Amino acid sequence: MSTHDTPRDALIAALEHREPRGRVPHFELEFFLTMEALGRVHPSQRSYQQWGQMSENERSLHRRDVADLYVAVARRFELSGMLYNSPEGWGEDDTRLSIEHVRELSGMEFFIPLHGDATYSLPNGDEMMDFVVKLNEHPQELKDTAQCRVDEALERAHRIRGWGTIDGFFLCADYCFNDNPFLSPPMFDEFVTPFLSQLVTGYKELGFYVVKHTDGNLMPILDSLVEAQPHGLHSLDPQGGVDLAEVKRRIGDSVCLLGNVNCALLQNGTHEEVIADVRRSLSDGMPGGGYVFGTSNCIYTGLGLDRYELMLEVWRSEGVYDR
Predict the structure, then answer these.
(1) Predicted model pTM
(2) Which member of 104, 224, 307, 317 has the lowest number of beta carbons within 10 Å of its beta carbon?
(3) pLDDT tens digits for 292-318?
């Protein structure tokens, strides 16, 4: 990159299907190894049960500390950005003020998105039976609820646009198991695709970048995801049988592709297997731009920091565009 480019600039170039100068941008949804890397507790592992009892000065110090940790992680691992996940118990204003601190510390150095999905994801075990019954017996009720969720998400986005600090939204409802999507493609197009399209369109009209995330085997619904016209698609999960080269061939001209380094190999593979998989992701994703380097999930608790650093060694030396 030239001295005039920031990590944020590089990621935006990829989202806009331009080839960044220098190194391919690097993005992770989350980085949980803050204690091992920096000796600091991750915000999700802190207790804010007494948040309402704190003085405003104490809350301000906590908001600043979370912002400082975000910047420290991004700079240490040369990230173009990460999702900004607020600790449990924070309100919308707490998030807004903390992100303002990030911008005070780093300016527009990093791409900062928020969670913003409102579509149906895989139901958990407690909810699955009820969801399946409604699909069959009360389909209009599910659609009405889906519409309300989209409307509420876009109302929130209108407020967030006024902050002037947020670049976009990651839509993190998971749709797929490792073998197939939870809903068949026709049911997906009935209960998800129209609402996903509304959500993406609404966010884009407000000036936000939009990336759709789902783990698992998204191939049977790939065309439906592209129909919604997000800027990017994450995480292209190899554990779900997703072939980055094939996805690049099919949709790489219209959607930026993010992720794909195999987390299972990062955790359990040999040194050589990790290097080979990182090289595969780079060689499959980089040509022509429109690719953002990263894992097929996130840097989660229990993953060895040394394996992540090995992944980055290969990226730093080989993930560079010629010009």
Answers:
(1) 0.97
(2) 317
(3) 999 999 999 999 999 999 999 999 999
